[in-house]
Amino acid sequence: MLRKFIFLGFVWHSISLIAQTDSCDCAANFSTLQRETEANYAGFPVKVTPQTQKAYQELVNQLQKATVTVTHPKQCYELLASYIHFFKDKHFILSYIPSSEYPWGDKPITESVFKKQCLQPNRHALEGIWTHPDGKLTLGIQRENDTTFTGIVLSSQEQAYRPGMVYVQLTVTPQGYVYQNRESFITTPRPARQIGNLLQLWSHEMWGKIFPQTMNASERIELETWKNQQHGLRFEKLSNKTAWIKIPTFLNNEETLQNWVQQNDAAIKSCENLIIDLTGNGGGSSGWVSLIPYLLTQPIHQRDTYVRVTPANVHLKRKDLEFFATQPIPEAYQKYFPEATVQAYRSAYEELTTTKLPFYPIPGVTFPMDVPKGNPKKVALIVDGFGGSSTEYFFYLSQQSEKTLRFGTPTYGMMDYEGMSTPTPLPFSSFYLTIPIVKSHWTDTAPIDQTGFIPEYRLDQLAPATWVTHIQGVLEKE
User: Fold this and answer.
1) Do residues 273 and 296 lie in contact, with contact meaning Cβ atoms separated by under 8 Å?
2) Which parts of the chain sit beneath pLDDT 70?
3) Which residues touch 139 (CB under 8 Å, ≥6 apart)?
4) Contact predicate 67/79, CB 8 Å
5) CB 72, CB 21: distance < 8 Å
6) 64 Cβ partners below 8 Å, 6+ apart?
7) CB-based burial of residue 181 (10 Å sphere; 0-12 exposed, 13-18 middle, 19+ buried)?
8) Is the peptide bond before 212 cis (omega within 30 degrees of 0)?
9) CA nearest 349: which of 330, 366, 329, 326?
10) d(CA 199, CA 202)
């Protein structure tokens, strides 16, 4: 409940729409996409400028011609995706959820035949048999060419998957692996990586290798934490001085995180140091709120964000603000909403309908300094190149904590423009579009989408498996 009151704006969410048809009018879909983007996308005035206008118009002209004769949904998606990619904004997302046509078809193969292939010389380390944490699904990952791997279902106790289905495709890029799963296409690249005998698909899945190599004890423990939809949540006291929590996703798990943090609160506060490990965390919604009390050394301010003022955007944003502007704030949340803050929401709610500003400031909420001083006295936050969206927002807020140090590598770069949970309808119901209508306060002066947030303590030269031990040593030495 608390998250509803203190965090407005973005959601990096899963998609569960079901397609209704297998044919589309691509020209009509592109026309709608272009119109809605130019009218409402918060990044459009910055990204289409006199310097980029020619390139933008050339792309539009090309797509207007190319989409006229296209009715195949996948071909249309690829054309529309090229328009989305022009803006280089990972929160500006188009997805396609096919109803019956899947990207790679089936590749029937028995497990015994696949095992023989795995034993041939010069096999890539990614090739082999991998198991899902609950053991109900196994994949055989094989190399197709220099840049492509496919994961084929070898055995399944899940009704949705049968042996021979291609479950996932991984592609090698200069930045590492990206993956595409069977159910949907999406314009935002989804990173993946192999860590020894574990395969991580961004924040969403972890797989363990069982043939021809198999997981060691620590890898098996890691895979176990992904059972039963726990998505890798871990807590451990590394010593009497240092506690470690691992949170690989903020995806739709606010209540789970709140309960999990409460369960471990006493143990966390028994230690002088806390390591918050967000490696691999691609974001989600606002589960990070449960971690804020451990960071507090002073009030933490959420700065104003800026909504692009258009009729459609004003309508959406006023719906967000309506409760705060028109209803009494429950007593339990009044500490976050002093009268000055409530009045700012009321003003925004009213003035949005008449303002002449191109972008209108939406007030942020402050986390008050309302916890007693004590443990943890030092906090280390770990991030890496998988960390996007709300993970990056938490990184930004942590900079207001005098006891928090940030370690790791640059984040994913996905927070200049805030994603919206409300989709923009396109004529073809199997296309799912979200347009960011709000920009962060830093976007105009210090944008991060192309660089990510950069931690003060870089760990690029250390093997990721050693990061936690290294940081523990830093904290306990100081």
Assistant:
1) no
2) 1-21, 100-103, 420-421, 478
3) 129, 130, 131, 132, 151, 152, 153, 154, 167, 168, 207
4) yes
5) no
6) 27, 30
7) middle
8) yes
9) 326
10) 9
Are residues 150 and 180 in contact, defined by beta-carbon separation less than 8 angstroms?
A: no
Q: Which residues contact 390 (CB under 8 A, 6 or more apart)?
A: 10, 12, 250, 283, 284, 285, 286, 287, 288
What local confidence, expressed as pLDDT, does residue 5 receive? 46
Kindly tell me the burial class for residue 11, based on how many C-beta atoms sit within 10 Å of its own C-beta (0-12, 13-18, 19 or more): buried
- Smallest CA-to-CA distance from 47 within 367, 436, 471 is with 436
**Could you report how far apart the first and last alpha carbons of the chain are, in Å?**
38
Quick check: helix, strand or coil at residue 285? coil
> What pLDDT was estimated at residue 100?
67
Distance separating alpha carbons of residues 128 and 151, to the nearest angstrom: 9
Q: How far apart are alpha carbons 164 and 308 in whole angstroms?
A: 48
Q: E strand or H helix at 33, and its extent?
A: helix 26-40
Give the per-residue pLDDT at 229.
85
Q: Which of 34, 16, 13 is nearest to 427 (CA)?
A: 34
Strand positions, DSSP E, 230-364: 234-237, 242-246, 273-277, 300-301, 305-308, 359-362
Other C-beta atoms within 10 Å of 348: how many? 22
Largest CA distance in the chain: 71
> Residue holding tokens 């800026």?
306
- 403-421 burial, b if ≥16 CB within 10 A, otherwise e? bbbbbbbbbbbbbbbbbbe
Residue with tokens 């890539």: 124
H-helix or E-strand spanning residue 405: strand 404-408
Tell me whether residue 379 is exposed, middle or buried, using C-beta atoms within 10 angstroms of its C-beta: 0 to 12, 13 to 18, 19 or more. buried
- HSE (side-chain half, CA atoms, 13 Å) at 331: 0
- Quote the pLDDT of residue 20: 43
Structure token digits, residue 217: 């004890």
**Rama region for 167: left / alpha / beta (φ>0; ψ in -120 to 50; rest):** alpha
pLDDT tens-digit series, residues 155-188: 999 988 899 999 999 999 999 999 998 888 999 9
Q: What is the pLDDT of residue 102?
A: 65
Alpha carbons 69 and 205: distance in angstroms, whole number? 38
Asked whether the beta carbons of 141 and 169 are under 8 A apart, the reply is no
